Amino acid sequence: MPTIKDVAREAGVSIATVSYVLNKKNNFVSEKTRQQVLEAIQRVGYTPNTTARNLKANQTRLIGYAWHKIPDYHHVNPMMDSFIYYLAQAAEASGYHLLTFTHPSGKPEPVYDEMIRSGRVDAFILAETIRDDGRIEFLRSIDYPFVCFGRSNPDWDFPWVDTDGQTGMREAVNYLVEMGHRRIAMAAWPEGSISGDFRTAGYVDGLVNAGLPVRAEYLVRGEHNEQTGREAVRYWLEMPSAERPTAIVAVSDIVAIGILNEIEERGMIPGRDLSVIGFDYTPLVQYLRPALTTIEQAIPETGQALMRMLEAVLNKDDSVPMQLLLPPQLIPRNSCGAPP
Amino acid sequence: MPTIKDVAREAGVSIATVSYVLNKKNNFVSEKTRQQVLEAIQRVGYTPNTTARNLKANQTRLIGYAWHKIPDYHHVNPMMDSFIYYLAQAAEASGYHLLTFTHPSGKPEPVYDEMIRSGRVDAFILAETIRDDGRIEFLRSIDYPFVCFGRSNPDWDFPWVDTDGQTGMREAVNYLVEMGHRRIAMAAWPEGSISGDFRTAGYVDGLVNAGLPVRAEYLVRGEHNEQTGREAVRYWLEMPSAERPTAIVAVSDIVAIGILNEIEERGMIPGRDLSVIGFDYTPLVQYLRPALTTIEQAIPETGQALMRMLEAVLNKDDSVPMQLLLPPQLIPRNSCGAPP
DNA sequence: TTGTAAGCGTTATCAC
DNA sequence: GTGATAACGCTTACAA
What we know:
Chain A is α/β, with parallel strands linked by helices. Chain A is built from 12 helices and 12 strands. Chain A is elongated. The model of chain A has no long low-confidence stretch (mean pLDDT 94).
């Protein structure tokens, strides 16, 4: 690879001059010299070496992004995977690249620490944040630049972008209410997860807004899998038919799929006998029969917002708000209808 | 961040000595000095700066991986997304990280060129290779290190790992034959795609092996979407029932989903009236009713094999075979049964 | 066994 | 306007 020296020799100038024309500001280089240098750069096919630049500037223009551990390879979270694609695009638009890394499930902080100490990256983007997130605690404690996709402890002040799951769920309930439903249930995650709790809160908000009672037996909780949806349906179908919910909102698409499956196996028709709404806009759920009504997160916008925020953090620009809630969007399909 | 100088000062030795103990080989450093240095490293919390190391060594220990353009964010290919996760893991095991980048759909080569010229990466991993792949042509022409997930032109000599779709499909047909099927159809992609053509060839192999006729009307081609599966079923259902296929292999899960959906909408039961096999092991297809029998690619192994191969390329180690076909695995679920 | 110093490819300060 | 040159943090001949 040609270096700045080759260009200097070719143009008959010093390497300093080449560097001047490259880093346009201070353009006190004479037009004639500038042209010579530019032509020489063309001729030798020169591109400045990033590593050398980085060493000088003490930066990498690399942003660390950790892959979240997945137990089994078909259990990927499709939403997160499309997120990182848009994140990569947004990063490039700002002259950064994503450097991906993995870490053992229990202890991520040492890996982040190592990335920092070795000067591998300039900042991090964290996804799938949790309550008391050790990564956030750690990065805050050493004042290292980062932004998060997802919230954490409410009393922690740090930059994040998140989907407004509470509003999303409230609107889902509202959508069902307007269709005529009065007995609306929710299949939720166990208490304690941030986004799960916001979604559950939105469900309650929706009921309250509509003047509907909040009934404990209409809220069933379980893990993030198909089984949870199935068990919830079994539970509700045991209720006398006048008590039974006529519509169900699920905390996630995978839970909604379990609901759909159990409903059908009980000989009922989802969307007619029982309406169902998912959450996540997972690929393929559009091809279920009935196609699943779901709530779509603003994934491309999230990536862009995160990068905007991260640049503000890196440039110590405090004109950019450091918390951003992005409204999701209800995607009506065929799994909802008027109550029977 | 502490530098090697800080350690040297702390330990009362020269920076060269620190460097010697760091780069263990040539361990002619006295045990006493070594201990002093090690302790100093601990005390000041030193980790060598990667950028400086890289500048010296003229490397980055970064592998470029381009995200393939996706038209719409729910059209991600889940298989590819889990692939890159395993790839990242394998890379780290070899001391590399993945540097991701994107490129405009038409012209990837200039972006690869730029990454090389600016010294951003040491090598590339290409995925979703095609016939006459310009990236392969380009990287071969400048003799830059890379490995591919996927084959390309048969007369090109370059390192690749690929799923043996031909064998996979042959075994799928064989599986159906053993269940008693004699009229087996395939919903394929248009001729010209590499993996599509191998899968189609495997279908034909399977028929021939079983002594079954290869009937043109049993092979329907269409794009990679749900509609293709639906149209294929409509076509076959117009045949007189004694002629109709009793089983269908699909070139991909999404096509298989279309098949499943159309079958059900015609009032038939997949797995009983008509057996169906997909290809890709897409997440969620296990939750379809019936759960889709599909062919699983060896994704983790592919990532590992690619990294092994890439290291061989980088170290000019020619003991490692530069072409590797990995057998996929049939995952029996409920979408197949004996012919009616 | 350890230290000195050159050099990796830049940028930027200082002379001229 | 332009050119030496130091410096970024490290590795490694070579000298001691």
